[in-house]
Amino acid sequence: MSEPVLSVRGLRIWYGTDRGAVRAVDGVNLDLRPGETVGLVGESGCGKSTLGRGVLGLLPEGSSAVGEVNYKGRNLLALKPRELRKLRGPDLGMIFQEPMTRLNPLMKVSQHFEETLKTHEPSLGKKAARARALEALRGMGIPPTRYGQYPHEFSGGMRQRIMIALALVLRPAVIVADEPTTALDVLVEAQIIRILADLRANFDTALLLITHNLGIVAEACDRVAVMYAGRIVEKGPAYDVTSKPAHPYSRELLRSTISLSTTSLHSIPGAPPNLVDPPPACRFHPRCPDAMRVCAKDWPPSVDLGAGRRSECWQSARDRIPAGLEAPLEREALAVAEEA
Prior knowledge:
It contains eleven helices and twelve strands. It is an alpha/beta fold.
């Protein structure tokens, strides 16, 4: 396998609040290779968007980050803001949720592209910039005749494609796509997924795809990382994780997915924990149907399952459980989580 173009090691991100520090990302390791799409999945509030923004240095005031985000031998967390801004666009791209709130309603689509290209490639002439922008839009299925229009003149799906074109026009090596198909109908969603799949063939771009949709992950991703309460609890090839999940949380997420064969609805009891004061040891144990006594007492090890798979769960390391702690966890803990 090729060397990672982006390597995250021990990344921790906190938000300061009146109630204390919110540990939104707590010790994440993740690699992205050229031409690879990695899906990042999990419930809302598990830290997915924070991880994506933290990788690009787009965190708000009042937050702090430690660890390493290595891009071409440079730790992005150690760079000065001006140095990091130079990398955003030509090296590191971002596709945000809700494109209508990200596109300036007072600027034409042409002005968005002109501003982006002028900022990062000042030597590029106006004619060359227009040609580059139209090429990017054409690749997203936006005709040149729409180039001089305002964002409100486009549908939601077309605005999302414009956002993707803006991310691609500078030909970055890494793109973070945060819920790129949110609030889109299934037909437009399918178009967006095809476009993202073409990134690897056309641009050799490394893509981190943040989503709730496990169907998208199975269809469009090479690998998947499952995130819960600020931790990546399982990762591996997308087919292996979605067909035979090793972590109970991954399994419960898949059971909650609706498909044409669904005959009854399933949900995970409770909700993701308060990250100001998360549960001790395994953070999923209050909701886990397979929880053992050790899950509430000791932090689970990260177990290498082979074939590029890892799982952070005592179920995958039963031979390491201390004597007397392998018994099922009392049901009271699960009942409390279900009532919450």
